[in-house]
Sequence to fold (229 residues):
Amino acid sequence: MIRGYFDALYQPPVPIIVVGLILPHRPTAYTPIEFVLDTGASTTCLHPRDALQRAHFSEAELEELARTSPQDRSLTGITGIGEYFVLPVRYLLGHDDGHLDLLDGELRVARPRPANMNIPSVLGWDILERYRIILGRRTGEVLLQ
Amino acid sequence: MTMPSTEEIRARHREAERASAFCQANYASLMQAYPDQSIAVYDDKLVAAGKDTAELFERVRAAGYEPNNVWTFFVPAEPRRILL
Fold:
């Protein structure tokens, strides 16, 4: 069982799962990110604040992705089409009993723009489809089983 | 790239959750003191705050820490509403 929590910085509070990222060629070996559990997202996306402050990309490195990484042009959202670049990643999800799920996949990394600087990173169906999702706002349950 | 050991991963994960719990427990005062700023937390302590990443990391280093070793969070001026 993987446990998360409801983050009261959002109104109403949103479900959060802490997932570790291992990104090749990054100086930080392992980066935990508080992802919003987003059942409306097809794929998992890292947004600029987390990319800069947690994964320690520089702004120049994020801009460089446009040159070095494939762009996912298929993503559209409520606010329009975003620019996302695809990186290989290993996801780490920690169970209550200490067991770790290691999932190899892709991470969409957003190109920084003023409009997306404060958007949280989202955990999408590429990861969520492996689990049964249990959410209970009144009980505070955020569980992946 | 060397894969971190399982124990290293678990330790780092626990640190992240602990830092997150610190923020959750102190949101009201953090929102009042650092609205629309990013903060850095280490060992249940606020070590720095800044309006952007550069300022935050500069202050983290001035406080004697490395950006790689602290946990950063964004503190909005008021609870956010989002549409993802």
